[in-house]
């Protein structure tokens, strides 16, 4: 399993717009074979940092998702929404291997 960690720098005056964008991606990732673990939005502390975590069975499965999302109408619409809203200033993407409790 591979988990994608996204760290966003967002416009704090456009938090509602970012939330609209984020809500679109949770079902998209799940529909396309991943497991979305949610978005984590500013509360206390920095008001311009948001995080997202989602997992795929393998890096190959994630790469397949990336290829399919480029032409998926819902994905394209989500990207277009943020192009209009401009709530995301920048983002970083990292991949991690989770260590989960054993049975």
TrEMBL record:
Pfam families: NIPSNAP. InterPro entries: Dimeric_a/b-barrel, NIPSNAP. It comes from the Bacteria. Residues 7-99 form the NIPSNAP domain. Transmembrane segments: none annotated. This is NIPSNAP domain-containing protein. It comes from Pararhizobium capsulatum DSM 1112.
């Amino acid at each position: 399993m591979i988990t994608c960690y996204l760290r966003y720098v967002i416009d704090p005056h456009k938090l509602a717009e970012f939330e609209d964008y984020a809500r679109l991606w949770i079902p998209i990732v799940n529909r396309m074979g991943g497991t979305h673990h949610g978005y984590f939005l500013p509360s206390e502390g920095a008001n311009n940092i948001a995080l997202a975590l989602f997992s795929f069975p393998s890096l190959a499965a994630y790469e397949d998702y990336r290829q399919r999302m480029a032409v998926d109408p819902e994905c394209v619409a989500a990207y277009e929404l943020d192009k209009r809203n401009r709530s995301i200033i920048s983002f970083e993407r990292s991949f991690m291997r989770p260590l989960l409790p054993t049975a």
